[in-house]
Design a protein that fits this description.
The complex is a heterodimer of chains A (156) and B (510). Chain A is α+β, with helices and mostly antiparallel strands and 156 residues long. Chain A has helices spanning 8-17, 25-36, 41-51, 55-64, 84-87, 91-102, 142-155, and strands at 76-81, 108-109, 113-118, 130-132, 135-137. Classes of the chains: A alpha+beta (156), B alpha/beta (510).
């Protein structure tokens, strides 16, 4: 998921697709994330204008939800499940391994990768689970983690 | 070959591609159908070869196995180490009480013909025929309670909404399955999405609502694709929209995505989110049945609750209520997760014991080590010690041991688990996910982590234990919703059953 430059016209088109309805703000923001990967200040300003909401209202929604990041992510987003079922299968150790092998701390990014926790991918019978660029992987050993990350790099 | 998140997460797509390629090379004519999952996740990727009416299952198939499988005559059900045998003879599946999930794995989830051939929309037709009140009475008589965790009687909720006078009412399906160890909603939506749509339409007809929403968590991108398509399929075939099948009944469904907030699984936070706002919990009363979505009377039900209805209408409430015990009627989809050898979904009548599910179906821990603790009902559920494994899985029996059945999620830990860390995590998770509206949850959870850290660092241990218990009391009594109100459950259960883990100063001692 590479961050593409913010584009006011494309943003307007997305907003129009939802009939510029304020009650669709969460859905519109999801569409923004899909298109631009993150929610910029420009986006907040435009949303407030076109949905007839205050910037504070839009900011309130953006800052409430984990999915709406306000800084550009790395080229690839790696999420490691930290919830109980995965903990029971070594997700803490897997997370430590990921931090070491990727060279970044949990909840941080470099140009290439964003590494973050997620609380349940619903793949609890195949723990531990990981999501890379929106694709869920199960039974992720440390070796398999390295392979998955390496092959997602190739794809780009 | 399932098109389902768990199966794909362990390589089902790669296997499907390999099968298609090899069939082409071998000049064999095959039809590759992407069904839902039967829920035996431990066997995924599970390939079934359908020969005439018989389906032969091959388990844990990897893409690299395909050449060998073809060489073994796999397309005619040939012998191979990965061959399990006929799907209808797999004990894990045939020993269940499959009522709500019976079409999952069996049919092509997006084929209206396959769905119709398996009683699809029969219940809606029947409902339109017998009338709204008869449907509500059937739901009441079935004893169905909310499968999302709270266990509120569904029929009473529906009656309440039906009785309120209003020009606009809504059905809001809670598909924000955020509890760790639960995936039954997902398996149902991926394996039988039209079944959910049918049941939502029945709910709409019963209470007088013409508009339904599904609030789906964003962590389920594949489910989103399948469900979106299923809604289109239903619309294209006249099962959603205006004047459904010429009955004069109008009902349509809008699919909304969540945005990574756990508390949006709480019904009023979900309604806020559906309105495009931050998912902050509302005060109750008013109940959503009176003032729900956009202030209108709203039925808020979990996916499995709603999906149970079509089956109740089809088989009759007496039949459904003949399963289960006490006030725990019917079946629950138990979900075996965590450190378990045979993880997956097991739909079974209430009353089976935790041990039966974990041992007979689950086969014990994946690591082969003894079970130390089992968390039932998600992150807000108690950790039970091995001594309580003989507790029957019913709402009543679990309340008696200060635990909850909840959504039926069962997460198993072996004896290497550090339960003090699990108690700390319960507080930490609450701190991360609290909506912030009420103080006990917002501040209490952060203080909870700090107090547990002090205990683990051997700082004024006795005083801090007392403080932790007092903090649990405050959170339980004074929080606005279950997030803060039940976070103390796992914490207290660790204090009660695994206090020893606090004395090892945080180091995992097996």
């Amino acid at each position: 998921m590479t961050a593409t430059a913010y584009d006011e016209r494309a943003a307007s088109e997305i907003i129009a697709r939802f009939d510029a309805r304020g009650d669709m703000l969460v859905q519109i923001l999801q569409a923004f994330v899909e298109r631009f990967a993150w929610i910029s200040e420009d986006a907040v300003r435009q949303l407030a204008n076109e949905l007839n909401l205050s910037r504070a209202e839009v900011h309130g929604v953006v800052s409430y939800y984990h999915d709406f990041r306000t800084t550009p992510p790395g080229k690839h987003i790696v999420k490691i499940c930290q919830a109980e079922a995965c903990q029971a299968m070594g997700s803490r150790e897997l997370s430590a391994h990921a931090e070491k092998s990727l060279g970044i701390a949990m909840s941080t990014s470099n140009a290439d990768i964003t590494l973050e926790p997620v609380y349940c991918l619903g793949n609890c019978a195949c723990s531990p689970a990981v999501m890379v660029d929106g694709k869920t992987f199960g039974r992720v050993s440390q070796q398999r983690f390295d392979d998955i990350v390496a092959s997602s790099g190739d794809a780009n | 070959m399932p098109r389902e998140t768990a199966a794909i997460s362990v390589g089902a797509d790669d296997v499907a591609i390999a099968i298609a390629r090899h069939a082409k090379e071998a000049g064999a004519s095959i039809e590759l159908i992407r069904n839902g999952s039967w829920g035996a996740s431990w066997l995924e990727p599970l390939v079934e070869v359908a020969i005439d009416d018989k389906r032969i299952a091959y388990g844990n198939v990897e893409a690299i196995d395909i050449p060998e499988l073809f060489a073994s005559g796999f397309l005619s059900g040939g012998e191979h180490t990965k061959r399990i045998g006929p799907t209808v003879e797999i004990p894990y599946l045939i020993n269940q009480d499959r009522w709500t999930f019976w079409r999952c794995g069996l049919i092509d989830p997006l084929s209206i013909d396959d769905f119709r051939a398996h009683h699809g929309f029969k219940a809606l037709e029947k409902a339109l025929d017998v009338g709204a009140q008869t449907v509500i009475d059937a739901v009441k008589d079935s004893g169905l309670r909310g499968r999302g965790g709270a266990g509120f009687p569904t029929g009473i909720k529906w009656q309440t909404v039906a009785d309120v006078q209003s020009d606009q009412k809504y059905i809001a399906c809670n598909a924000d399955e955020g509890d760790s160890g639960t995936f039954s909603d997902r398996i149902l939506m991926e394996g039988d999405p039209l079944g959910l749509i049918e049941s939502m339409a029945i709910a709409g007809f019963a209470v007088g609502a013409d508009h339904g929403y599904i609030y789906l968590r964003s962590e389920y991108p594949l489910t989103h694709r399948i469900l979106s398509r299923a809604i289109e399929v239903a619309r294209d075939n006249g099962w959603l929209g205006d004047d459904i099948q010429g009955s004069g009944f109008n009902f349509d469904i809008e699919l909304h995505l969540g945005a990574g907030s756990y508390v949006c699984g709480e019904e009023t936070a979900m309604l806020e989110s559906l309105e495009g706002k931050p998912g902050i919990v509302r005060y109750k009363p008013p109940l959503p049945a009176f003032e729900g979505l956009f202030g209108q009377p709203t039925v808020v039900n979990n996916v499995v609750t709603l999906a149970s209805v079509a089956n109740i209408v089809n088989i009759g409430s007496d039949k459904y209520a003949s399963y289960g015990v006490d006030q725990s009627k019917g079946t629950l989809a138990f979900q075996l997760a965590g450190n378990i050898k045979r993880g997956g979904l097991v739909e079974k009548a209430f009353g089976i014991t935790l041990r039966e599910v974990i041992e007979d179906w689950g086969g014990g821990t994946a690591s082969g080590r003894p079970v130390k603790a089992v968390q039932v009902g998600g992150p807000l559920g108690a950790y039970l010690p091995a001594e309580q494994l003989d507790t029957p899985l019913t709402y009543e029996a679990f309340i008696e041991i200060d635990a909850m059945v909840g959504h039926g999620g069962i997460v198993v830990f072996d004896d290497t688990a550090d339960m003090a860390q699990q108690a700390r995590f319960a507080m930490e998770f609450c701190a991360i996910e609290s909506c912030g509206k009420c103080t006990p949850c917002r501040i209490g959870s952060t203080r909870g982590v700090e107090v547990i850290d002090k205990i683990l660092a051997n700082e004024n241990k006795d005083e801090n234990f007392d403080l932790l218990v007092e903090l649990c009391d405050t959170m339980e009594d004074a929080s606005l919703c279950a997030m803060g109100g039940m976070t103390p459950y796992p914490v207290r259960s660790v204090l009660k059953h695994f206090a020893k883990d606090f004395s090892s100063a945080g180091s995992a001692d097996a």
